[in-house]
Amino acid sequence: MRPSGRKLSEPRPISIETGVTRHAEGSCLIRVGDTHVICTATIEDKPPPFLKNTGLGWVTAEYGMLPRATNTRTRREAAAGKQSGRTQEIQRLIGRALRAGVDRSALGERQIVVDCDVIQADGGTRCASITGGWVALRLAVDRLLKTGAIVSDPIVDHVAAVSCGIYAGQPVLDLDYVEDSQAGTDGNFVMTGRNRLIEVQMSAEGATFSRAEMEELLGLAEAGCAALVAAQRAAVGR
Fold it and tell me: Annotation-wise, does 125 bind a ligand?
């Protein structure tokens, strides 16, 4: 029995509320169980310098966690004077994941920055950030299309992410913090709406895993990402 009482293949409740900030071109609050993340997308009318005069756009991301997003206070990284390695790794993952669903030539020479701010954490914050970040990105791109700034839709597919792992000897979907902290194997799966893989992060935290177990986790991830994509569709209407 999982601590939450969920079945092995049961994800946490998912909700996505759009338009949660006044100024951002796209925004949402995604809740995956007790993990809550505010995602905003900002359109900048010029690309980063390394893409100047290439005709290509760029999507990048920044990630952060509020001090009391967890059960004990975490010092603000700004106060420490630098980002942690974990933060840098996560925001690079979010950026890579979102770019995989974008035709950068159709986006044109502009940049969209997706900010993911964790206001409450209970495991899977990077996965929730990717899933909610896509919604914010979708809404920002819709604004570009509506104003005529671009003529064709640069978003080629949905992008969502979910965690899976082996907890108490059983493959389970969508780990919360209690499960994640005790899992023998932990993995994050980033996928498109067409079940194409973007990135897989898997590691043996306390016990090695077999190929058969990895394939079972992948099957769970496909079902989990399908549920997240359905929530994205419901939030943005497509």
Answer: yes
